[in-house]
Each structure stands twice: as C-alpha cells, then as structure tokens.
Design brief:
The protein is of the alpha+beta class. 22% of the residues lie in helices and 28% in strands. Keywords: Protein biosynthesis, RNA-binding, rRNA-binding, tRNA-binding.
Length: 92
C-alpha cells in the first residue's frame, strides 16, 4: 500500500494530500529511511513521522483498502512519541 494512503486510512494524518505533502518534505521515514508518498508500506514496517516538534514512531499491524473510524487505530501500534531533540533545545 502507498505511504500516503496508509497515513490517511490509519488516520495518523487526516487528508491524503497532507500526507503527500508531509512525506515530500522529508518528514516521514520507513524503517529509518526517508520515504516518498509512493513508497510501499508493509506489515511490520516502522514509520517515524515528524509532527512539528514531535516525533511519532508506529509499527504497521494491518493493511486494509478501507477502514471505519473506530477500526483505524488497529492498523498500527504506537511505539514511541518524543520531542524532536533538535527543536526542544530552543525551548530551554
């Protein structure tokens, strides 16, 4: 499944166009490598997404072509949520 579609269906990002823009800006990594919107996501992959100053790491658990809102969270497991160290230095 395409990265931008997974981010939208899992509701990690609300809109597919936003998911596309975020990954084009180099703010999404799959298994430690920078990912493009068309990158393929597989079950077991670890995604790291930069939301402003926050880094969120999730593991892909399920791929589905469509999903209901209440089932979207089953598509991934939250592994880590942390402040981006580079940006947090400016907050002190």
């Amino acid at each position: 499944m395409r990265l931008d579609k997974f981010l939208k269906l899992s509701r990690l990002i609300k809109r597919r166009t936003v998911a596309k823009d975020v990954s084009e800006q180099g703010r999404v990594w799959i298994n430690g490598r920078e990912a493009k919107p068309s990158s393929t996501v597989k079950v077991g992959d670890e995604l790291t997404i930069q939301f402003g100053q926050k880094l969120v790491t999730v593991r892909v658990e399920l791929l589905s072509e469509s999903t209901r809102k209440e089932d979207a969270a089953k598509m991934y497991t939250l592994l880590k949520e942390e402040m981006n160290k580079r940006d947090s230095d400016f907050l002190l």
